[in-house]
Amino acid sequence: MSTEKKQSNLDIMRHSASHVMAAAVKQIYGDKVKFAIGPTIEDGFYYDFDLGEQTFSQADLKEIEKKMKHIVKQNLKFAREDVSIKDAFEKVKDQPYKQELIKELEKEGNKKVSFYKLGEIFEDLCSGPHLESSGKIGPFKLMKVAGAYWRGDENNKMLQRIYGTAFATKEELDEHLKMLEEAEKRDHRKIGKELDLFTFSDLVGPGLPLFAPKGVAIIDELKKHIEEVCRSYGFEKVMTPHLAKIDLYEISGHATKFSEELFHVTSSRGHDLVLKPVQCPHQTQIYASHKRSYKDLPIRYMESEKQYRAEKAGEVGGLNRVYAITVEDGHSFCRVDQVKQEVINMVNIIRDFYRALGLWGNHWVSLSVRDYSDFSKYIGEEKDWDICEKMLQEVSDEMGLKAKKCEGEAALYGPKLDFMFKDAIGKEIQIPTVQLDFATPKKFNLVYTNEKGKEENPVMVHRAVLGSYERFLVLLIEHFAGAFPVWLSPIQVKIINIGADHKKYCQEVDERLRTQGIRMELDLANETVSNKIRKGEKDKIPYILVIGDKEVKNKEVAVRKRSEGDLGPQKVDKFIEQIKKEIEDKII
Amino acid sequence: MSTEKKQSNLDIMRHSASHVMAAAVKQIYGDKVKFAIGPTIEDGFYYDFDLGEQTFSQADLKEIEKKMKHIVKQNLKFAREDVSIKDAFEKVKDQPYKQELIKELEKEGNKKVSFYKLGEIFEDLCSGPHLESSGKIGPFKLMKVAGAYWRGDENNKMLQRIYGTAFATKEELDEHLKMLEEAEKRDHRKIGKELDLFTFSDLVGPGLPLFAPKGVAIIDELKKHIEEVCRSYGFEKVMTPHLAKIDLYEISGHATKFSEELFHVTSSRGHDLVLKPVQCPHQTQIYASHKRSYKDLPIRYMESEKQYRAEKAGEVGGLNRVYAITVEDGHSFCRVDQVKQEVINMVNIIRDFYRALGLWGNHWVSLSVRDYSDFSKYIGEEKDWDICEKMLQEVSDEMGLKAKKCEGEAALYGPKLDFMFKDAIGKEIQIPTVQLDFATPKKFNLVYTNEKGKEENPVMVHRAVLGSYERFLVLLIEHFAGAFPVWLSPIQVKIINIGADHKKYCQEVDERLRTQGIRMELDLANETVSNKIRKGEKDKIPYILVIGDKEVKNKEVAVRKRSEGDLGPQKVDKFIEQIKKEIEDKII
Predict the structure, then answer these.
(1) Nearest CB neighbour to A213, from listed B236, B245, B285
(2) What is the ipTM of this complex?
């Protein structure tokens, strides 16, 4: 709980910093500034300004930062004032964006709205809370300025958004800035291009990545790995279409939940379908295709198919936000008395998968249970929730997960376990989850015949392991900075000849490794060896084999290992044996 | 060429049979019959009738058939008559469908239209040709009656279509009927359901199959196999999105070609995209993502992604006609001097793939070249066509393909090789193709820098091997009647215990085989052994292992092989070794 409280304090402080920034902008640019909104975000805050035709430069940011420091030094008080709607309009008579916000608050039935004053230099429509005074704001930095449409709607005016960050201590700020610098170096768009993993095309459109062979090599290894792991726990692969009648999602509830994100599919022949926003409803229909008995359960399906969301055009970018993600999704349909074993299996799958990436251990688990004060907002029977929450706690205890119980964090349809990892530069990864679901089977009238010959609804257990391949690739690229472990490397071995005489032997070695399933690059170009090695290193290829007179004569290869350098000559057989073991054991 | 002529005679005869059928219907039902159209189709003919509220029964078909036989016996003459539009309308004054057809002919600028008389009993608007007289019609049979909208448009009236077939000899007719009977037994919808390969859901909608685990097992084996084969010929896997801006297809020409079949994708957020009707344009964009040199070519891409066609709602059914097919598609971008080797590779891929299914050998190849009388309708340089057609001929000669040269059968963008196979019951399979394409690279401005530093367009070589997994599954199911070779069988081995004492050993054996990657079913149900064997046989599982006292004692399994029966006891190790070899060698 201490982490959460700290987070929250940090949030208040950052929000106060955004007011200080707005105050600084007002002091510098005067009345011509129109103020929009200034919320906190992960790791910082922003404020959106309308400066007319004028734009902020980097130098302007420096000046604003200087002015902010001055305001912090002044230690001005934050003071709340609740005023009537009428008075509120009076306060913002020159501020059209604030007027719009107040109109909405009025529409929602508010009689009063609150303002926060910062000393006498700035006043803003705001529900708070804020720090006592500006002096309490920690070390901060303005990061960048970017265009942002008012309310995120591209039909509105483009405003100027200044991003900033603030921390409790200088050390934390410095650490964060260092992390950002490192993250920039590791940016998946940059590395993705350098390593030729994926591309975008103006003709195809933004938000629609095309994966080049090297990107597919990684994705396919991940697919193979996750399928293997899941298969060993009884999952069977299914394949469901990307389209459906909207009826399917009206029953599941996703038509409402994703109404804006739904892609509608029509044709001149009168078709009217949607692209699937989630996988689960389709999988229920395979379950429903047969009569099921208690003896048939658990039935476990997995698949890696695309799901679609009509993200806002202005928000798509890189692989992080795209129109279609290829989701590795899995569900178990089981009896209540089987749920525990299913959850254990799924936790094992998550453990096995993340361990192979070196991420297991640096993680924490949330046991997200219901809000005990009000069951009416949940779906299912309270007694089933009791059983299942208790059972999740048992799983946590027995498996040593040390899950932190988070009350009120359950999904509407059931309690869950969420896994949070940290990547190499400290970014939090929140992907894996095991969720119990009492609602969906009921909605789709999924049943099995129990031992007494009566029909019952199975429990549906959802599990995500790597989430989507697109976003997981971002994570992997940034975690490994493109230097993937051998088993994931698009090219695992590069062979380089020293002279023309060595080409034939290079081809022989290449062929021998290739037939062992090793992903090869054979570089016989008429360039210097050091040049070819440099290229291989730039491509972050784990092994480079250099072949000259000595190697041909001794039937060897001179091995260079990524980040370790020259390992000297090795017999080809021995090299193959070693690299195959490294691949099979998924050594990092 | 003799085959084609025979086809054509058969076609004329069947068309004449459709007139005889119409004449018989007229004789029986009189003036109330409104006649629509009566063309030939593959293996037969049909005629669409409007009988008002009345419908044809099976008994009616018998009566019509009887009347037809009488007309054939009468040996009535077919006689053509060309008449003015005005006289034509006079002839069909009670026939609204014919009137509509004549109106169209008039619109198209025809001054005269032709009718065919059958003796004095029937006269029909028809451009012919026909047999000399009805006596020359071979053995025929009416097959069924089905509803069909006038002109295939569901907004029009539903007519009654009677299907018939006719052959030159009684033997051919009998053979055809036998084949149909066999085909019905092998119907993929029937077997697909029995073996639980795929299903449809009312909530998801027609034309959108959901593949159950057993169906996916087959598809995944096919994928693995084709990828392995293609990879050994230098193909690299890519993954392209299912969506694109329509711009992509405006350039490729598919927006026009598939204007009716295009699915349009929109959202409440203003997105405007299409679902891809073909893969090729997307793949060009990966080629286009880098500068390419003559040294980089050939570049070979393959992928297995979905493509979409808005088929008419009334025409979707089973896996044969669906809204999305998962196409195994591949392209090579190469120089003209590399085309020959690329084609040889692709023919090798086709050969390797179809040989593993036992289909190679029972096939013929068409070398589809341009119409030499008019080059204006083709794209590209005539000299490149010359080189490439000659080269395809060389490939045919050198590889012993004995390709039949079919003039005028080339695609607009280049010449091609088409492969025609016959399945187990004689149905023709026309899937594999190797097509040269001079046009697409030009359209997308794909270039490489040649040895002189100048930009040139590469040639794009398209290849299809198995086409789409959906339709190929239909072919496999019907070819093997569900009894797939071991490597493709969804379940390869079923283990059955005789008594409760044998369960543990059954589980041990199951686990041993499973860890070898063999797809297993363990049946420990409390049923009789013969019952469990019967189920395994119904599921067409290649191997059933029965385990009782003797087997436990001797560490053996009693092997039953599909269609061969009891093979007696075998050591587990030996069985594993044998089945693994059978799988690896893809024994049929």
Answers:
(1) B236
(2) 0.84
Which residue, among A303, A328, A280, has the nearest Cα to A446 in the 3D structure? A280
Helices B339-355 and B213-231: crossing angle in degrees, nearest 10, is 140
Over the range A277-289, which residues count as b (16 or more CB within 10 Å of their CB) and which as e? bbbbbbbbbbbbb
Compute the distance between CA of residue B45 and CA of residue A93 in angstroms, rounded to an integer.
81
Measured CA to CA, the distance from residue B139 to residue B136 in angstroms comes to: 10
What domains can you pick out in chain A, each with its CATH number? 3-172 (3.30.980.10), 198-479 (3.30.930.10), 493-584 (3.40.50.800)
A451 touches chain B (CB under 8 A): no
Do B248 and A204 lie within an 8 Å CB cutoff?
A: yes
DSSP assignment of B309-334, as one string?
----GGG-BTTTB-SEEEEEEEEEEE
Answer whether B210 sits within 8 Å of A239, measured CB to CB. Answer: yes
Please name the member of B199, B208, B243 whose beta carbon is closest to the beta carbon of A289: B199
Cα A467 to chain center, whole Å? 8
Q: Which residue, among B170, B165, B157, B169, has the nearest Cα to B183 in the 3D structure?
A: B165
Q: Chain B residues with CB inside 8 Å of A272's CB? A: none
Cβ pair A513, A541 in contact under 8 A: no
Report the alpha-carbon distance of residue B504 to residue A583 in Å, rounded.
34
Q: Is B179 exposed, middle or buried (0-12, 13-18, 19+ CB in 10 A)?
A: middle
Distance spanning both ends of chain B, measured CA to CA: 34
Please compute, for residue B579, the number of CA atoms within 13 A of its CA located in the half-sphere on the CB side.
Answer: 32
Report how many Cβ contacts below 8 Å link chain A to chain B: 187
Best CA proximity match to B342, nearest among B218, B249, B437, B227: B437
**CB of B263 less than 8 A from some CB of A:** yes
A179-225 pLDDT per residue, tens: 888 888 899 999 999 999 999 999 999 999 999 999 999 999 999 99
Q: Which contacts (CB < 8 Å, 24+ apart) does range A380-384 have?
A: A380/A413, A380/A414, A380/A438, A380/A439, A381/A438, A384/A336, A384/A438, A384/A459
Whole-number Å distance between alpha carbons of B345 and B359: 19
User: Are B204 and A224 spatial neighbours (Cβ–Cβ below 8 Å)?
Assistant: no
User: What token pair was written down for A314?
Assistant: 């202005």
Integer Cα distance of B303 and B239 in angstroms: 6
Residue ranges in B337-459 assigned as alpha helix (H): 339-355, 382-399, 439-443
pLDDT tens-digit profile of A537-547? 999 999 999 99
**Interface contact flag, A210 B241, Cβ < 8 Å:** yes
Q: Give the integer Cα–Cα distance in Å for B330 and A213.
A: 13
Residues 6+ apart with CB under 8 A from A111: A84, A85
Whether A316 and chain B come into contact, CB under 8 Å, resolves to: no
Rounded average pLDDT per 10-residue block, chain B, 588 residues: 52 95 96 94 94 92 96 96 94 94 94 95 93 95 93 88 95 92 91 96 96 98 95 95 96 90 95 95 96 96 95 90 95 94 96 89 92 86 88 94 93 90 84 93 96 96 95 94 96 97 96 95 95 96 97 95 94 96 93
Interface test with B, best of A189, A202, A208, A303 (most B CBs within 10 A): A208
Pairing outcome for strands B158-166 and B78-84: unpaired
The encoded tokens of residue B247 equal 């711009």
Backbone angles phi, psi at B286, to 5 degrees: -75, -40
Which residue, among A493, A496, A535, A536, has the nearest Cα to A517 in the 3D structure?
A: A493
